[in-house]
Amino acid sequence: MNDTSDAARRPAGQGLTSRPWWPWVKRAVKIAFFGVVAYLLVTQARSVEWDEVVAAIGRRSAQGLWLAAALAAASHALYSCFDLLGRHVTGHPLKTRQVMTVTFISYTFNLNMGSLIGGVAFRYRLYSRLGLDADVITRVLGMSMLTNWLGYLLLAGLVFWWWPIAPPPDWKLDTTGLRAMGIGLFATAIAYMLLCAFSSRRTWTIRGHDITLPSLRLALVQLAMSTANWMLIGGIVYMLLEQKIAYPTVLGVLLVAAIAGVITHVPAGLGVIETVFVTLLSHEMPRHELLAALLAYRALYYLIPLAVATLVYFIVEARAKRAGATSNTPGTKGK
User: Pick the residue with more confidence: 298 or 167?
Assistant: First the structure.
């Protein structure tokens, strides 16, 4: 509060005069950020074999494609609500439309370019442009990430425990080990819920950041939203595989592929998702059919949303730039 009051009493331009290099640093950082984004977009586009994507989509039935596309849209819309939980916790004043737009852009870039660029950089960039400080953004980001992986823990725990897939013989983890892992994941999710319900201590400080347990009601909302989202994603692949493989099996393989993509740190899981599915399901479906379905999945869930998110992002940036120019125009303050 004192810093804000001092800043309000300081003569206009005094801070910039004492640091004449600061506008140039901000400009350089902005140019570098846009340069990295442009480079990643071009690299991502060049890495995609577009003829195979189009051919894969063409081999699917129109009804199956429309259903898969509807599930993909529902998943992106649901994930875009995750940051609303962070708004509830922090009490920041941004509108629902603004929060969902930022979350959609960040999630889509996260899928295609990794969490550092998408989940972190875009959130900090866009939320800071909307007036949130770093501490609030960190808490919103942490809540969203926790929500996403809470549902994963519960769902993967149940699937690995009750419907374990049969790993290849050369894997170090057999069916028994996978079932044991499932029990551990499920227990972790339940332990979090119990903490939210019964813990007398509600706040911990880790590296200078306060972490507060949500109420049991909010934790249940987290669990429901995240579990539903993972099930929607599994439904996309299930529909693109033309329902020829049991849904619990498809979902289990998807959950294995998701954690494999996180461990390998490969943007968009390029090659990781396909490898896991082919390795685990080639005995149930020909390799070329699996790859066709997965290419269609990548197009529907990764590439098309990326094109939309890129357009929306530049629109948001253009509006923010115009708003900044208007606020800095002489005579506009106080209007």
Answer: 298
End-to-end CA separation in angstroms for the chain: 24
* Sheet strands (E) in the chain: 203-206, 209-212
Each residue of 200-226: pLDDT tens digit? 887 777 666 667 889 999 999 999 999
Domain boundaries, the chain: 22-323
Sequence-distant (6+) residues with CB within 8 A of 227 are 151, 154, 155
- Give the SS3 label for residue 13: coil
Q: Which neighbouring-strand residues pair with 211?
A: 204
**In degrees, to the nearest 5, what angle opens at C-alpha 160 toward C-alphas 154 and 162?**
95
pLDDT at 77 over 50: yes
Residues 6+ apart with CB under 8 A from 296: 53, 56, 57, 60, 65, 68, 240
Q: Quick one: CA dihedral 242, 273, 148, 72, positive or negative? A: negative
Spatial neighbors of 195 by CB under 8 A, at least 6 apart, are: 213
pLDDT, tens digit (0-9, with 9 covering 90-100), for 150-182: 999 999 999 989 887 776 666 666 778 888 989
Whether residue 79 contacts residue 229, with contact meaning beta carbons closer than 8 Å, is answered with: yes
